[in-house]
Amino acid sequence: MDYDLLIENVDIVSPGDAVRRGHSVAVAGETIADIQPAAVLQGRTAGRRIDGRGGLCSPGFVNVHNHTPLMAVRGMFEDRGFAPAYTKGVPQGHWLGDAETFALARLGLAEMLLQGCTSVVDFYARPQALAAAMAETGLRGYIGGRIMDVDTAALAEGKVVADPALGERTLADSLALFDAWHGAGDGRIQCILAPHAPDTCSPALMRSVADIAARDDIRVHTHLAQSPLEATRVQAAYGRSPTELLDENGLLNARLTAAHCIAVSDDDIARIARSGAFVAHVPVGNATGGQSAPIEALHAAGAPIALSTDSKSGCMLDAMRMALRVARIRAGGRLVFDAATAFAWGTVGGAASLGHGAVLGRIRPGCLADIVLFDPEAPNLRPVVDGVGVLVHSGSGFNVQTVIVGGEILVEDRRPVRYDLSAVIREAQDVADALWARVQAG
Ligand SMILES: [Zn+2]
User: Fold this and answer.
1) What's the 57 CA to ligand 1 centre distance in angstroms?
2) In sequence order, which residues have a C-beta less than 8 Å from that of residue 128 and are 6 or more positions away?
3) Hey, which bits of 178-332 come out as E strands?
């Protein structure tokens, strides 16, 4: 057998490369072995062949910031506040046990998987349940526990109240996750450290996390300057901007991926760029909350950008075009950035933020075979000219037909192959029904 898998007759769109029409992709083990015009590879033998029928083929999307248990409040908090942890009258994270977290995580991950995400960062309370759900899907998962020591119920009332026991417990949960899950699922599960935000972590807790991350070279994910309110609170409490506070406590460096970066000054932007930290851009979530991040300025200053859906739709193509639209509105109508740039943010840019830019996020020989195939008969994906334009400006995650991670087919004909999607949906609905009944009961 020449190859384990041969994906035949596809139009390949990959960051940094011109579209390759009518090509085939050969996979050996978990990596891409060769890419040639379809006729060249036609006679080769393979354990499994997929006929792409002339559809688009892209690297899997890298979705760098999510909290899947927030599926419980989808459709219910967007009109009330910008994040459930800061919003009254919706189910709260600390209500969830392991079983509820697992059920909601499975729903969030199923949605991302079906829409072509192949690498997903997920962090929240009950991280062991998140990891179990991730392992079941077969995705490349970067999991963390939500580390914090400020009471969010008090914060929703505008008060910053430190709770050292909460800090110790959430940090211990995070560290226990490493022992149980780091490297699990054939190496697809990796653990991260995730201090929640500058207004929910005390400086002492930030410093503890920074020291552990530096000692063991662990990637760190956080929220930064998620709202003007956060900036105001942090300034009042510490006399510094959220960005300065992270920097002062050892977290702002090349190991960090900072989500949102909305309320940042010119000085903060320069500081972020100098540090080598990655920006996790959340264009859909930000816009839903009436906010936008100064991505053009961050990019111009040299900050590397990655993309996420942040537990909204899971559609990275939607995130890419929202990133373009919002940047252009902010720029007063200048057509800043282009489809290829946004596509790179959602693929190889995310891979770089996870430390895997050399092997993930591109369709190239030697890269990991994380590949997405789109419906060749989707009318919204025609005509294909340069490929990336139609994909980013007109594509939908639900045009995805096949998802492959490390050479393993995880989605075929739009259905996950490892588990029963109907059961996942039913169980998540049951959990949400119970949580909302509790809200109604007061
Ligand atoms: Zn978040």
Assistant:
1) 29
2) 98, 176, 177, 180, 181
3) 189-191, 194-195, 220-224, 256-260, 278-281, 305-307
Distance 65 CA to ligand 1 centre (A): 6
Q: Supply the pLDDT for residue 83.
A: 66
CA atoms of 410 and 399, how far apart (whole Å):
16
Query: What secondary structure letter does DSSP report for 358?
Result: T
* 31 CA → ligand 1 middle, Å: 31
Report CA(317)–ligand 1 centroid distance (Å).
Answer: 19
Reported as type and span, the H/E element at residue 340 is helix 339-344
Q: Which domains does the chain have, with CATH numbers?
A: 3-59+365-416 (2.30.40.10), 61-353 (3.20.20.140)
User: How do beta strands 31-37 and 20-28 pair?
Assistant: antiparallel
Ligand 1 centroid vs 70 CA: distance in angstroms? 10
Q: How far is the CA of 309 from the centre of ligand 1 (A)?
A: 10
Distance 143 CA to ligand 1 centre (A): 13
Position 154 scores a pLDDT of: 79
Q: How far apart are CA 2 and CA 28, in angstroms?
A: 8
pLDDT per residue over 207-218, tens digit each? Answer: 999 999 999 999
- How far away, in angstroms, is 142 Cα from ligand 1 center? 14
The answer to whether 142 and 113 have CB atoms below 8 angstroms apart is: no
Distance 83 CA to ligand 1 centre (A): 8
Q: What is the pTM of this model?
A: 0.97
DSSP symbol at 348: I
6 C-alpha to ligand 1 centroid (Å): 38
Give the tokens for residue 403: 């998802």
Name residues of the chain where pLDDT drops below 50. Answer: none
In this structure, what token pair is assigned to residue 158? 């505008």
